[in-house]
Amino acid sequence: MDKLNLDQHISQRYNEELEDLRTRVLNMGGLVEQQVANGLQALLEFDADLGEIVFNGDFEVNAMEVEIDEACTEILARRQPAASDLRLVMTVIKAISDLERIGDEAEKFGKVAMRLAGSANRPAYYAELRHLGDQVKSVLRDTLDNFARMDAEGALLTAGRDEAIDREYNSLSRLLISHMMEDPREIKSVLEVFWCARALERIGDHANNICEYVVYLVKGKDIRHTSQQRRLAAQKDKQGPTDPA
Amino acid sequence: MSKAAEQTQTRNLQLLEAFAGTTGEVRVADRKMRMENVDVFYDDNQALFDVNLDLGKNEVLAMIGPSGCGKSTFLRCMNRMNDTIDSCRIEGRFELDGEDIYGPEQDVVLLRARVGMVFQKPNPFPKSIYDNVAYGPRIHGLASNKDELDHIVETSLKRASLWNEVKDRLDAAGTGLSGGQQQRLCIARTIAVSPEIILMDEPCSALDPIATASIEELIDELRQNYSIAIVTHSMQQAARVSQRTAYFHLGRLIELGETKTIFTNPSHELTENYITGRFG
After folding, report:
1. Cβ of B154 under 8 Å from any chain A Cβ?
2. Dihedral angle computed from the Cα positions of residues A204, A219, B274 and B68, in that order, rounded to the nearest 10 degrees
3. Which of A130, A240, B70, B120 could be B48's S-S partner, Cβ–Cβ 3.0 to 4.6 Å?
4. Are B23 and B192 in contact (CB under 8 A)?
5. What is this model's ipTM?
6. A60 exposed, middle or buried (CB, 10 Å; 0-12, 13-18, 19+)?
7. Inter-chain touch B4–A8, beta carbons under 8 Å
8. The sheet that has B197-201: what strands, in order across it?
9. Is A10 touching B (CB cutoff 8 A)?
10. Inter-chain contact B276–A83, Cβ cutoff 8 Å?
């Protein structure tokens, strides 16, 4: 039952409410994606103006979270959704909380960009953030695509890419730690890079969470806290015999 | 009809044509009643098609489905209520503790004492509260003296959570009670003859939310001692009170499963369409 058929309720109004909910999450996702991209650009290009735009933009993300939360509460109270509709509302409630936190991480990039733009001293290994940043942006984009298409298989694959982000983050951390040990005077500025790398890694984790919710939404299976190998094996098993439904 | 509605209707018909047996486990280990290959006809019209289902001990089984799906027909077969309808023909087997309830030796009056029924509209007898409850025990000879009868009446009213509200006016007319109280009186009347199973046919559809809540609370308590099968149009009620849910559609038992699963992740598309309010 992979297709959610949101437009086929007897109540036309209910169709509209659920579709509206989905659209709003996609808009919020688009805004968050933009915030992350702008934040990274501001960071890498020492662009204080863009940094400020990102910093101020987080208010909009927060407002969207509150609005969508309210819409979910209203649907729960008025419609008492069941089955896939219930899973959609649960998924939205959880996904927007992760999106909001991704927004917070992007806001940090804005703040750091504003701080560093004025300083003459550019921290070491700063450029290394670009590679990690590109990886995270790509995962975030695919995560939102999976949500938009309600694609559980895609979400499972995207979730698997979080390991690569973690590896990249770990090797960058090692580099930064060695550098700090070699030159303790740079600890303060290297820590800025460190926090940004940490924020990127956290964005990867939030994207991973959203991918897990997409699998729950489409398949009704909760795959949180299971290993990627197990998930893929379960997925393979499922492709064997055909679903009776 | 909108295009989406037409699509779903066509899809539902296809699913029904492709139906090859109930999705989910229909049997339970600790069974009270077993129904096997049940077909029911009203004259030439078939109302139920090869239904297989167990009612477990100490469980509440909810039966849901759109009007005309056969759920009430099935419920009524479980204590031979349909015997009174001449045009009704029943095939298949209904076993209560392994015993065929449609067998030639079966005493129908006794069967209905063992398998009691509560109806949609509260239907107390035009008698006192006391006599409403005492009626069954009297005709079945369950009490040898007045004290025993008093005891049965009191226990039944207590189990039906009505005792505290009526203990000072047992001689008042049962029909003078509120709707919710009348329904609890009917439940007390059913309990008074010590049934093993209670069948409920939309017991709350004529009641307000508060009376409904107290009946639902009662159903949960009754489960400790009885097996309960409840037909309801309120899916929220099925979700609240039952442990297993059966979904009927046009005379077929489409899906049977744990209530939790049916309402969060049903397996069959017809079940999904019905409980989410899609065209069905």
Report:
1. no
2. -170
3. B70
4. no
5. 0.80
6. middle
7. yes
8. B115-118, B197-201, B227-231, B60-64, B244-249, B252-258
9. yes
10. yes
